Predict the 3D structure of the following.
Amino acid sequence: MSNVPEGWVETTLGEVASINPREPMKKGTIAKCVAMEKLPAFDKRITGFELKPFKGGTKFRNGDTLLARITPCLENGKTAYVDILDEGEVGFGSTEYIVIREKEALSDKQFLFYLATSPRFREIAIKCMTGTSGRQRVQTDVLINKPLFLPPLPEQKAVADMLSSFDEKIELLREQNKTLETLAQTIFKAWFCEFEFPQAHPSPDLSQRERGYKSSGGEMVEFELGLIPKGWRVGGLLEVFELIGGGTPKTSVDEYWNGDIPWYSVVDAPKGYDTFVIDTEKKISVLGLEKSSTKLLRKGTTIVSARGTVGKLALVGRETAMNQSCYGIQGKDYFGDYYVYYQVKQALDDLKRNVHGAVFDTITQATFKHIEVPIPDMDMTGNFERFVEPIMDKILNNVFQIQTLSKTRDTLLPKLMSGQIRVKF
């Protein structure tokens, strides 16, 4: 590295960190297991774990960094900072992880995580990959001996503190979205599944009993919906909303791509409880929109993945196109956007049970037709929409804030890791 910042020293990852440190764990011990799919892409948090008997794999403690070493996981940015364990607890995961742990007086654990996510470090790691196409993996012994220029420990801590402040704000917003989304879903279930209404809305007459039919394992079986409010009826999901298909512009035509229009596929499904999609991995041009079967979905449209990985939901936070493996869903008549979203979410288990397809699980229009629900009156759906709109607006606003914070953090990261921007310590 030219123009080495004052005070920085040349070293290696192997000198400042413990790599794949040994931890005692007997075979068969029940412990938290973090699978590769639970490692986020260019994000700090681990998204989940399972309790499983230990049979083998890398072992780690809180404060360790997990770095995927196999293609395409490394290139896709799969890295995480471990904070899901109790004090003294040991977890385990894939043999395709490199575990990076701080060395006292030499490195800061948070700094090591951000180092592992920095573009320059990942470029070095990718160059250390070997193996056949599609199964390449990092040669750990080569990576940890590559020269690096790193700041002294106090500056490492200052850099980590600055970057962590962004991640902490992002996590707070995500936790708030989790609370808000749970609240909105609870209201939906109370009103439209359990028929429990707020005091301001008198409880309706439940003297009316409706019967209907529901698909189960491909067979039509009679079921009892029980008492529903007077004036409501039983109907199919496609009486509530319409389905909109997507499409893919020709990938061979460059002019159709890299425009300003978000183009949604299942990889763009919102993380956790963020609910809304406001950006996508790929974008198309106006010409790509015009020359393909995809359509521009308005804000408030529900998207559900319908082929392969089925049942991933999103609400459109800005005008967005999508591929043909998804459906856009918009309400008919008096059914509002948020009622539609939560009605689809409520029906997801039934939709997944009734998928079909020889190669890929697929949800078709026929899948929706065979699911029946209580259909409320206009007043009730209108009240629900007005009740939850401020909740959903707050979630969307938080999603935009998360995007801004993430972009700012990602802009600062390489500059802090190269010493182009210095912090006081």
